[in-house]
Amino acid sequence: MNQRTFNTKPADDLTPASAAKRDAIIKAAARVFMASGYGAASMDQIASEAGVSKQTVYSHFGAKDALFEAIIHGKCQALTGRDGVTSNRTEDPEIVLFDTASSFLRMVLAPESITLYRTILAVCVRFPELASAFYRSGPRKACDRLAVYLESIHGQSELDFSNATASAELFFAMLRGDLYTRCLLALHDNTDEDEVTQHARDIVQAFLRQHRHI
Question: For the whole model, what pTM was predicted?
């Protein structure tokens, strides 16, 4: 599939006032998309919600799909931009992985994240470029960053991460288990901090057992 290049203004090139307006548009668009769905949402609605003209929205984002990708990128950046995964070999891997797992779970189990993911699932067949943007900015980027860390500690404490990419993918697949599935299907509400902590701890311990030479 050909990758589409979206027409957006780089945030780093904007003045503070323009950057603030861009941020307001993204937040307004997120509310509209969550309420109406991607297909039904219009640029007129988004402009009205943001309190700007439609032309202002178009000047920052050339089309609705570009605006939706900006939302996806921002949500994913909130997770993958963290310093939770570090290549510091002196730190206990169990602590590093627990911090990573906890941050990941808090992000993906948040009601806003669940709604966003449902929206992406609803449009992924009609708009595959949006699904691709989500995958590149979120799951793929998180796996790649974790793989770098796992490769750096290969052999430490008898841990075998000879295929660091596959191990990173397994780690996040384990985290996105039954709890996440039930939340996604609206079968489980109000996940509390204790539940997240216990789930993260269980997954990390199982993951390390799987990769430790006996």
Answer: 0.78
58 and 80 inside one domain: no
Q: Token pair of 111, please?
A: 């009601």
Backbone phi and psi for residue 2, each to the nearest 5 degrees, phi listed first: -70, 135
The dihedral formed by the CA atoms of 92, 96, 99 and 101, expressed in degrees to the nearest 10: -120
Q: Which two tokens stand for residue 113?
A: 């994240």
pLDDT band at 66 (very low <50, low <70, confident <90, very high): confident
Are residues 145 and 80 in contact, defined by beta-carbon separation less than 8 angstroms?
Answer: yes
* 24 and 120, same domain (yes or no): no
Assigned domain for 4 exists: no
Which residues, listed in sequence order, are joined to residue 159 by a DSSP beta bridge? 212
Is residue 199 classed as helix, strand or coil in its secondary structure? helix
pLDDT of 103 above 60: yes
Tell me if 150 is assigned to some domain: yes
Q: What is the pLDDT of residue 196?
A: 93
Residue 49's domain comprises 11-62
- 200 within domain boundaries: yes
Q: Where are the alpha helices (DSSP H) in 5-110?
A: 16-36, 43-50, 54-60, 64-80, 93-108
How many Cβ atoms are within 10 Å of 114's Cβ, its own excluded? Answer: 16
Query: What's the confidence (pLDDT) of residue 6?
Result: 46
Reference 149, options 175, 168, 169; nearest CA is 168
